[in-house]
Design brief:
Elements (H helix, E strand, L loop, with lengths): L1 H13 L3 E4 L15 H9 L1 E8 L8 E11 L2 E9 L5 E10 L7 E6 L7 E8 L4 E10 L2 E10 L6 H13 L7 E2 L4
Antiparallel strand pairs: 1-9, 2-3, 2-9, 2-10, 3-4, 4-5, 5-6, 6-7, 7-8, 8-9
Main location: secreted
Keywords: Disulfide bond, Glycoprotein, Lipid-binding, Pyrrolidone carboxylic acid, Secreted, Signal, Transport
GO molecular function, one term: lipid binding
């Protein structure tokens, strides 16, 4: 089992995942963002978001990423992620997100239909629902953690002031990795 775990960690590290030593940070309570997670997400968070910056991931190989959220069923939000690949084709994946614990409505789990893996964390650290959203996820793997982060905007661009604010929130939450621009939308 230790050989398999070590092999998995080496593969993830070699494929540009944000694998770091240590346990996942515990971001501050974000519940003020979602007074009633399902109601607010159904009506305010849904719609199209543009990927402005992200931590590099193995599973996202393209640019100009978008995420479109839609009400699916009580307690579940539909997820459609798209990206433009180098050959000009559009890659997409469909999934769903749901609140893991009602006491922490800003912490969701996202799963995708074509990926045979457990749901991943999708924590909304900041959002005004109209212009920006900061999403963070972290999973512990023994002595290491795997981090994900996305800065999203309702428009293909974001002001430098808002971008710096999102990066500060991410850093204060414990993610010290350098987040990268996603390219032109």
């Amino acid at each position: 089992m230790q050989v398999i775990s070590l092999t998995l960690l080496c593969v993830m590290a070699a494929s540009a995942q944000m694998l770091r030593f240590g346990k996942c940070p515990k971001p501050v309570n974000m519940n003020h963002l979602f007074l009633s997670a399902i109601n607010i997400m159904k009506y305010k968070y849904v719609g199209k978001w543009y990927e402005i910056m992200k931590l590099p991931t193995q599973f996202q190989k393209g640019e100009c990423g978008t995420a479109t959220y839609s009400p699916k069923s009580p307690g579940v939000i539909g997820v459609l992620n798209r990206e433009l690949l180098k050959d000009g084709s559009i890659n997409f994946i469909v999934g769903s997100a749901k609140v893991k614990h009602p006491s922490e409505p800003a912490k969701l789990e996202v799963s995708f239909t074509d990926i045979p893996s457990p749901p991943g964390p999708y924590w909304v650290l900041s959002s005004d629902y109209e212009t920006h959203s900061l999403v963070y996820g972290c999973s512990d793997f023994g002595l290491f953690r795997l981090e994900f982060a996305w800065i999203l905007s309702r428009e293909p661009t974001m002001s430098e002031e808002t971008l710096q604010s999102m990066q500060s929130i991410l850093s204060a939450a414990g993610c010290k990795n350098r987040i990268s621009p996603c390219g032109d939308q």
